[in-house]
Amino acid sequence: MPELTVVDAAPLGVFGGTFDPVHLGHLRLAEEAADALGLVKVRWVPAGQPALRQTPKVSPAQRLEMVRLAIAGNPRFELDACEVEAAQPSYTVPTLERLRLPNTCGAARPIVLLVGADAFSGMVGWHRWTSLFDLAHVAVAHRPGFPIVAASLPPALADTYRERYSEDPGVLRAAPGGRIVSFAMTQLDISATKVRALLSQGLSTRYLVPDSSAAYIAAHQLYSEN
């Protein structure tokens, strides 16, 4: 993986997930995060073996390739294959610790972990979740008009949210990590579960999945029950 060239204090977004398969909702989240938060790049990190989900039906290498095809041509996106190549369960904190090594992002670069509102609300179940803020900021994508409400979060996470939240994304430049911000993203009723269900029935996923990824799925007959 090439070393990230540090040119200023612009933060780097990190977007991890199973991407089973990657779809247009993922792409819009990453694109709108880059705009809203002033991210210099968004680094996509497909999980090799998701720790908190069932084992995907397609291989890690296939999910990695679908992401590679989906983000090709966008200069703000880059791919991190290390979790797939590691062939072991993927956890967010160890991933961030790896990114903090001198030969990758280093200790000083602001890193912003991108998560959806549902994933954020379940963060207390993550491996070593309180250590996240020693390594990165967290940016939460939410529906327009429906901001994150601390009272709706689990108590421990609500306290952390109140302590660390800022309405100003400019705080992301001021430190390598430690803050929580949020941003509204265009609401798209797309999920990987829905995409897999359509594919299993032989139905079209056009306008839900990037054309390049859809072509790969078709060529390899992924998610088909036939």
Structure description:
The chain has 226 residues and is α/β, with parallel strands linked by helices. It has one domain: HUPs (Rossmann fold, 3-Layer(aba) Sandwich). It contains nine helices and eight strands. The chain has a six-stranded parallel β-sheet. Helix 2 packs antiparallel against helix 9. The longest helix has 14 residues. The chain starts with 11 loop residues before the first strand and ends in a 6-residue tail after the last helix. The N terminus is likely disordered.
List the helices and strands and how they pair.
Blueprint: E1 12-17, H1 24-37, E2 41-46, E3 49-50, H2 60-71, E4 77-79, H3 82-86, E5 89-90, H4 92-99, E6 111-116, H5 117-121, H6 132-135, E7 137-142, H7 155-164, E8 180-184, H8 192-200, H9 211-220
